[in-house]
Design a protein that fits this description.
The protein is an alpha+beta fold. The chain contains four helices and 13 strands. 16% of the residues lie in helices and 38% in strands.
């Protein structure tokens, strides 16, 4: 990962245009090819960025980042205060808490919750930006990516014999105990990557959670992602007190 602190201006030209006037900013170039422009505010979100695959062309005072759609991010560098590169190695990924890990395990064993005829392909399906919790096949052989969360908000192992099932659609599952808007955003990023693989595309998405806030449902469904509410107690076979049946 390369970290550059520089006084710069930034122009984006693509589906729309955007301009960032000259200021001191952090420029990040990741090993996957993505380029991000950060300020010292705005929480974790970059001011602008270009997702991979993209090409970075560098001149002493100008960076030009171009993606496969021909969109460009032009960074004019007036002054460089720091320029360092660090090899972060392979990231082991986020360690889920007990409930999230159990949700993933239970859903992988109870795929009928998502639809009849669904079959497991693999848990912890790898992508360049981290593993998707579950990849499975639905009865119609359509590709599905599933994000499992403990509480959805806007904001494993292979199958038993290690082979790909004959029927069903691929499902990728990301498990979180508490999820904000990141749950939808992370699933969206997984889908973008998975759909670049001609052997998988088209891949659809499912957001599965114990609770899903209205804003999360709105954003997910606007992006073509199906939302499914999970009953953790029922999946564990726990009977609630105070019920007749």
């Amino acid at each position: 990962m390369r970290l550059v602190i520089a006084r710069c201006s930034v122009d984006y030209d693509g589906r729309l245009t955007a301009h960032l006037p000259s200021a001191l900013r952090l420029l990040i170039v990741k090993a996957d090819g993505s380029v991000l422009v950060h300020s010292d505010g705005g929480s974790y979100k970059p001011l602008n960025w270009m997702s991979p695959p993209c090409r970075l062309t560098q001149q002493p005072d100008k960076w030009t980042v171009t993606n496969k759609a021909g969109e460009t991010l032009t960074i004019i560098i007036e002054e460089t205060l720091s320029d360092t590169s660090v090899d972060l190695g392979v990231d082991p990924g986020l360690v889920k808490d007990g409930v999230e890990a159990h949700l993933q395990e239970l859903l992988a064993e109870q795929l009928h919750i998502l639809g009849d005829g669904w079959r497991l392909v693999r848990r912890e399906y790898p992508t360049p930006i981290g593993p998707v919790d579950i990849m499975c096949r639905d009865a119609d052989r359509a590709q599905i990516a599933i994000e499992i969360t403990g509480h959805g908000e806007i904001e494993g192992a292979d199958s038993a014999d290690g082979t790909v099932p004959r029927g069903g659609a691929h499902v990728a599952v990301e498990v979180k105990r508490h999820a904000g808007i990141d749950a939808v955003e992370q699933l969206t990023r997984y889908l973008e990557l998975l759909n670049r693989d001609p052997l998988l595309a088209p891949v659809r998405g499912v957001l599965a959670a114990q609770t899903i806030k209205p804003q999360a449902r709105t954003l997910a469904e606007d992006r073509g992602i199906r939302c499914v509410v999970l009953d953790y107690d029922a999946m564990r076979g726990v009977e609630r007190e105070g019920t007749l049946f």
